[in-house]
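Entry 14. Structure prediction run on the chain below.
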Amino acid sequence: MAENKNEAGGNGGPKAGEAPPALQIVAQYVKDLSFENPGIGQQIQRPQIDLGVDLQARRASNPPDHFEVTLKLRVTASQDNQPMFLLELAYCGLFQIQGVPEEDLQPLLLIECPRLIFPFARRIVADAVRDGGLPPLLIEPIDFAALYRAKMAEQAKARVATA
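Output returned:
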C-alpha cells in the first residue's frame, strides 16, 4: 500500500494541531468601472485592442486573515488612430486565507486569487463593451503566474540597479 505523505505530521503536510491551508472567497465586487465611447457611430472594422493588467493585494485590517485583491484592467480600442473606447475596471475579491506561511502569501495573492476572480471581471468587460453599442470583447485568459514572475524579475532588476 502506498504511504500517504500528506497526513498530519507527514512530509509536506500540516503538523499535528495545525489546520491545513485554506483559501475562501468571502466577497467579490466592482470597486470602480469607467467606460468611455468616443467612437460611437463609427464603422467598426478590426480595431487595435490594448490591454493593461495591474494587480494589488493588501491585508484587511480586521480580521487579519482577510485580504483584498484588486484586479485592474484597462482596455483601449482604436481604429485608424481614432479612439473607439476606453474601459477601466477595478474588480476586487475579498479572500480569507488561513494556514499559509507568510513567505507563500504573495504568490498566492498575486497568482491564485486573481485567477479565481478573472472570469467574473472578464464578463463585466464583455457586458460593458456590448452595452456601449459595440460587439462584446472577450479577453483571452491571463497567465497570472507569468505576470508574477515578470514583476519579481523587474523588482530584482530595480534592486540591483539601486545597489
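The longest strand covers residues 82-98.
Filed with the rest of this week's runs.
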